Amino acid sequence: MHSKFLVVLAVAVAYASADVSHVVKDDFHAPIVSSSFDIEPQGDYKFSYETGNGIYGQGAGVLKNANSEYPYLEASGSIKYTSPEGQPIELSFVADENGYKPSGSHLPVPPAIPEAIVRSLEYIAAHPPPAEVVKAAPAKLG
Questions:
Q1: Which of 20, 27, 78, 93 is 20 to 30 A away from residue 60, measured at CA?
Q2: 64 bridge partner residues
């Protein structure tokens, strides 16, 4: 009984004295070192920020096809920070009419397209269906 108490006491002392400062950070209270945001009347914008704990971000957006029926915003930017594991993270992105495209060495990489699928796609591209089989797409839904 006495030895169990000593083991529990030793674990409690070790736990209380462990240095966890590298794990537990007060990021919630990190000061904003710099911040800027500029927006133009036509919708273009740019921003940047930096915090006291080493987070940095910047980006810009440009309105494309402003005078068309389908205008869209093309945005790009990046963010840099250190992960909880101590790994430097750098993420860049582009978002446009084709969607959101992030890039960074920490992101997973999709597997290669299987050779059979590549050959199938090449065959389809080389042998399009006859024109009479292809139906006209509807003019506009809605």
A1: 27
A2: 72
pLDDT tens per residue, range 107-129: 998 899 999 999 999 999 999 88
Tell me if 43 sits within 8 A of 61, measured CB to CB.
Answer: yes
Calculate the average pLDDT of the chain: 84
Residue 138 has what pLDDT? 60
Distance CA 44, CA 78 (A): 17
Q: What is the DSSP string of the chain?
A: -HHHHHHHHHHHHHHHH---TTT---GGG--EEEEEEEE-TTS-EEEEEEETTS-EEEEEEEEESTTSSS-EEEEEEEEEEE-TTS-EEEEEEEEETTEEEEE-TTS--PPPPPHHHHHHHHHHHHSPPPTTTSPPPPS---
Token pair of 51, please? 């915090």
